[in-house]
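hey so i finaly got around to running the thing on 3-oxoacyl-ACP reductase FabG from Saccharopolyspora ipomoeae. pasting the sequence first so u can double check i didnt mess up the copy paste, my clipboard has been acting weird all day
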Amino acid sequence: MAQPLLEGRTAVITGGAQGIGLAIAQRFTAEGARVVLADLNGDAAELAAQQLGGPDVARGIRCDVTAESDVDALLAAAEESFGPTDVMVNNAGITRDATMRTMTEEQFDQVVNVHLKGTWNGTRKASALMRECKRGTIVNLSSLSGKVGMVGQTNYSAAKAGIVGLTKAAAKEMAHHGVRVNAIQPGLIRTAMTEAMPQKAWDQKMDEIPMKRAGEVAEVASVALFLASDLSSYMTGTVLEVTGGRFM
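ok and heres what it spat out for the 3d tokens, dont ask me to read them lol
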């Protein structure tokens, strides 16, 4: 029987209480990892951790990824519970969609801070610990919106494009320390957020997808597992699209 891909490893996942983050946590635990779920909603993170198997397998912690001290505390709690962080998944995100004409400065700052600064905090703090161990993997969640831009998402598209640049720069800095940094760009993935969009908008997006269906959170989680595991041991600075072929 094959050894689980993440056996004995500690993984930290931000935005881990629901959606793509929770799906990644489920896949990681199935492959032997012990996970720490970070979320602004601490109660939801704790509940998700219980559903994953409780304190021997998972912990849920409240974390504001825009706050350096919260990220420090998150990584310290992970080490205290399960050992040094081997895998860091920067997934936390929000949307504040509006056209440029109507978008407020606060809406722009909120989205850029959570996505871009939050990913920077997670990448910076985790990589500093990983370099001491001479190994580790970081997976950053970008978006197709960071590749092509989306109407009403100047804040979100800018932040998600920034994550790509951050990932590549960090990968170059950390490669000789044995730390790999990669990113995923999901397209239309079936989540509570996307299913709440107007039918007209959903149909328009579906028309752009050669595979003629939305992706599932488990399909993003599988790619995260690949990047987190030794299956991708010679990959760093890469951006993998999970889009069903949309905007090739």
